[in-house]
Amino acid sequence: MQMLTKFESKSNRVKGIAFHPKRPWILASLHNGCLQLWDYRMGTLLERFDEHDGPVRGIAFHPTQPLFVSGGDDYKIKVWNYKTRRCLFTLNGHLDYVRTVYFHHEYPWIISASDDQTIRIWNWQSRNCIAILTGHNHYVMSAQFHPKNDLVVSASMDQTVRVWDISGLRKKNQAPTPMAFEDSFSRQNSQADLFGSTDVMVKYVLEGHDHGVNWATFHPTLPLIVSAGDDRQVKLWRMNDSKAWEVDSCRGHFNNVSSAIFHPRQELILSDGEDKSIRVWDMTKRTAVATFKRDHDRFWVLTAHPELNLFAAGHDSGLIVFKLERERPAYQTHQNQLYYIKDKILHVHDLASTADQEILSVRKLGSQYVQPRTLSYNPAERAVLVTSPHDGGIYELYPLPRNLTGNLKEPADEAKRGNGHSAVFIARNRFAVFDKINQQIQIRDLANAVTKSFKTPGMVTDMFYAGTGNLLLATATSVILFDIQQRRVVTELAVAAVKYAIWSADLNTVALLSKHTITLADKNLKQTCQIHETIRIKSGTWDDSGVFIYCTLNHIKYALPQGDNGIIRTLEQPVYLTAVKGKVLYILDREGKARSITIDPTEFRFKLALINRQYEEVLHIIRSSNLVGQSIIAYLQKKGYPEIALHFVRDERTRFELALECGNLDVALETAKIIDKPDCWTKLSTEALRQGNYKIVEMSYQRTKNYDRLSFLYLTSGNETNLRQMMKIAELRNDSMSRFQNALYLGDIEERVRLLQDVGQLPLAYLTAKTHGLTEQANAILAAAGKTEDEIELPSMSADLPTPIKPVVKLEDPNWPLLTVSKSFFEGAFTSERNTSNPIAAPTFSYDAQIDNIEEAGGDWGADDDDVISGTKAKASYDDDDLLGNHDNGDEAGGWDVDDDIKVDIDAEIGQAAAQATAEFVAPTAGTSESAIWVQNSPLAVDHIAAGSFETAMQILNRQVGIVQFEPLKPYFLSIFQASRVYVASTASNPTLTFSLRRNPEESTQRNSLPAVVYNFQNIVSTQLQLGYRLFTSGRLAASATQFKTLLHSILFTVVSNKTESEEVTQLINICREYLTGLAIEQQRRATTGTEPESVKHALELAAYFTHCQLQASHLQLALRQATKQAFKLKNFSTASQFARRLLELAPPRSVADEARQIQAVCERSLRDEIELNYDQYNPFVVCSITFEPIYKGSPKASCSFCQASYKPELEGKLCTVCEVAQIGASATGLRVLA
């Protein structure tokens, strides 16, 4: 028997625990007064409740209401609502510690046990105490209701267990009935009944424990009681209607037994105690079955889940949720039959007819409490191999009986049993047995005789079937495909901790299941994809279409071969998948029952058809199913099918965005009219301009009243009429600049002169008129200004006057000519479905020459009236007869055989015409940029930065070295991005050309290219590091610290080519850390300038710590010389002598050595210290880079995930002060710099 730990928490001592009956929650009451609510499935702390004053010993959930109750050493019982996260009320009445609290399964009652020697029953609805049970003469350690009957059991330190009858209390608190006079009189004295009451009576007093009793509880179904006490015994009691007696005692605990409970499903008793152990006892034999011990933690409480096979125990440093043995049955599916073992009996279940039959008993295999682990079925010989983990692993070969009628057969052939961790059939008459202890694989025949034996090719943890003659061997870090005949490793795939291998029916693909990972691979173990889940993966099976269906603790999911996955449905409880046929999923539940559930495969079939380009299937699913939702729309967008997503969307805004994405201007225009928002028209104009659809651009500018752009559009398209109308509108709007701009576009000199006169710019008006030869207008301007030509001095420059470009040929359709490309399959299908044979008319814009004011012009700019837009004539559809060239020639064709096969030709021609009708321009698919290839080819953050993928680069740095502060790294990001490409100017009005710089241009192609290295490692070492050393030597501490920090940041973006350089990078990080730590210590020492004793002491300590930084010898001499002088000045002669000795060991220059020897000679006369320092040079230590305090060897500490600087444990989660970019204590995989 084994304990399978499902969840473990670290906290203060846990004194009480309670499972939620439905949700995966557990409550823990702690000795420090806190209540913790945990999700044991996800391993997360959901809530804390802190209202008790002192330890909380009792805790319990209500079976149906969102309530829980707690009782503590503050004598209070509190009832909480976990939905509102607050305490509803407090029940006061106990005079001492409250030990346990429980809800009644049916009535609104709470029972509490206390050190005041009483048990109280409370009505939590009326919030009153309805009974006080007295009789114990010492602390009452526990009290519980019977799960079905009107009984209470209590345990006390008076060495007794009492059973109480509460049937009178139940009758008294039932719904009111008509009362006699005597009854009503007796009710008036009900308060007196509390202490001598007939409502609750002692039924039995169980005596037998030699010391105090800590726990007593009822069996859920049988008339049994189990108790645990300080006499180190667990006692079993039986009771009937008239008496109760001791059955037996279980002895084995070495200290006080804290609690004992019955196993809800098996004849077992579980107990735990202060001897740091949990023990399992056989209830019938009263013998120990298993013992599970902890090294340092005493156990205080034990409970079982009300519905699941889960237990929880509270100990000194937290709690543990566990179960005894696995619930996963051993099973295998062959064709339409499922072979599985339930309660040590082999069943065969027909998936089609749901008929289930018992075949064979396997009770003699292993222990009665240990279920078989695996089952391997041989259809050729009708035999099964069953393995059990008992005693290190055993297996047995069972031939299946031919006749399935009569009693179950129990084979007695011991010869077909043996030791082995795993056993699987590998051929018709051979099976393999894996001996995990000796790391050996044996090939045996059906008589269980060894035919071949060999050692495993490494440290193997498990073995799986891999087709005839092959085995899958799982190691801690990989899976090996092993050829048995040749005894060689065929291939190996790096997948850690594989628990199950599930093959498809044709053995072409395999799913390798780990605790949180699914790896899909082909038969040669070439990985196709890997899927990560946050919670445990339980089982899986293959669909006929090649989709892998799997389940976690709370979901059934699917995985496509390309790596896409999704949820099919949720689960209340985990199940084990055995097979899937269409919409029916066959499973084994936690009870071991074979059943089926219905699933909806539409989503994964749709995605699979889309990936496989089975467009007819996709279209069929769209038309026949209600496949909707944001997830499917997002998926289609991600995969590059916005035209399909467009079909699903009903929201106009989303339809508009999708139409723009797939370049469908018709739908975009349609939805823009419905939405009619300026931002939509602006986006539509941008996309229409990109496609050269001037008419939609024109309409969009009209709707947004974008006059300047509209004028420029008319200029570029040569539409002089509309441009002149725009000038008139500008005049009505009193927009002088727009009017001038339009006059300039038109080359209308007279209008420009008139405008300049209107705005009072007479000099400019005169200059314009004179320059362009308009003498009359020029003279009129002079006369109006009261000037003569003699008074005006004009420049004597001669130049060609600019003239606007006139259109050579005015096109009927200003839209760009586009390639005629067939629509995509889906666009054509959806278009034909909507019967939209007439496309949306392209707008043409014209003006009424009779407009007198701007208000009349406004309707064409902002209103929804589209009458001004006239549609172009739609293409004439072909007539079938014309298409075929057939004309009505009367009956002349009657003598010819023209009617035999003409229908086929007609259909073909109609189909061709329909294809032409749906022809439309589709922009060519863009190729993959070299930057995107860099991202695909490299796992290094620097290459992602060079590609411009800053987001993934930051994710990589966070994952590798825990970087959380990216602001200091921004200059590096920008410089790397800029340095990885060359920009070349092209012709005028064209964008700049960009060329990528490759790391190895001679050897690489675009497919395997990588960006150039910006931060060369050798340059960093030879230049930047030496500069840091020189600054340190010259005493420029701030500049030196900045240089080493720059150096440390540069390392993040370094690329090296071999393992030796990679190790040197690690050494360089250590050098930078030591220097930065030392410089921070020295700068802190220099900042400590006070004369107070504490300041003086702290300064000397910092000087001492500085000498323990791993610096270059010459730099360490500076630190030691300084520390020696400081200690000598403060008369710490012993410490100064130590520093002087260390300085002399480094062979300093003669003058420094002489000075050190003089100090040492003086100090040795009186080896004492005036100031006691927090410094021990003989005990290795590191310095916390925030508090500047020593952390001695063996003490807990937290480290920076990048530079490995050391910190106090309480600083975990803060930003490292050495590198200033990484988080202290962050989980990281390590910096990767090797290309």
TrEMBL record:
Residues 617-773 form the COPA/B TPR domain. One of its GO terms (biological process) is retrograde vesicle-mediated transport, Golgi to endoplasmic reticulum. Residues 355-589 form the COPA/B second beta-propeller domain. GO terms for molecular function: structural molecule activity. WD repeats lie at residues 7-48, 49-90, 91-132, 133-167, 206-247, 250-291. It is a peripheral membrane protein. Pfam families: B-prop_COPA_B_2nd, COPI_C, TPR_COPA_B, WD40. InterPro entries: Beta-prop_COPA/B_2nd (IPR006692), Coatomer_alpha_WD-assoc_reg (IPR047312), Coatomer_asu (IPR016391), Coatomer_asu_C (IPR010714), Coatomer_complex_subunit (IPR050844), TPR_COPA_B (IPR056176), WD40/YVTN_repeat-like_dom_sf (IPR015943), WD40_PAC1 (IPR020472). SUPFAM superfamilies: Putative isomerase YbhE (SSF101908), WD40 repeat-like (SSF50978). It is found in: Cytoplasm; Golgi apparatus membrane. Its main location: cytoplasm. Keywords: Cytoplasm, ER-Golgi transport, Golgi apparatus, Membrane, Protein transport, Repeat, Transport, WD repeat. GO terms for cellular component: COPI vesicle coat; Golgi membrane. Residues 823-1233 form the Coatomer alpha subunit C-terminal domain. Oligomeric complex that consists of at least the alpha, beta, beta', gamma, delta, epsilon and zeta subunits. The coatomer is a cytosolic protein complex that binds to dilysine motifs and reversibly associates with Golgi non-clathrin-coated vesicles, which further mediate biosynthetic protein transport from the ER, via the Golgi up to the trans Golgi network. This is Coatomer subunit alpha.
